[in-house]
């Protein structure tokens, strides 16, 4: 997906406005658009106000304020994983407007469709497990 399209589809109104007005670069806006909406708003405001000079500085500041910097390298891996997951979600979501996965795979062989179904099952299981682990860890913190 092109960065500009990514910003239009996944960016908050504030991010889209800052990007459209040329106040936020294509690469910065694309990075911000991969973040959760609440974080997008915080990062965009920090950049707009001049509180920070870069997206990375804003994310670091938010992590420090929320206490997530304590996880160090593991937190960075989790953020990278989340960004990648967000990109997959956005691309999959954009397929809905093009008829979805059924429409896009209609010319595939039955074997290719079966393989996709199997792979989707693997993803479903991985995400179910990740969700359960997170719920368990969160409940232990409380």
Total number of beta strands: 0
Number of domains: 1
- Put simply, the count of helices is 8
Q: Roughly how many Å apart are the termini?
A: 39 Å
Low-confidence stretches: none
Share in β-strands: under 5%
Q: Based on CA inertia axes, which overall geometry fits?
A: flat
Computed Rg: 18 Å
Report the order of strands and helices.
Answer: HHHHHHHH
Major sheet summary line: none
The amount of helix comes to over 70%
Oligomer: single chain
Average pLDDT for all residues: 80
Structural class: mainly alpha
Explain how this protein is built.
It contains eight helices and no strands. With 142 residues, the protein is an all-alpha fold. α1 packs across α3 (26-33) and α4 crosses α5 (55-66). The longest helix is centred in the C-terminal third of the chain and has 32 residues, at 110-141. The relative contact order is 0.08. The mean pLDDT is 80.
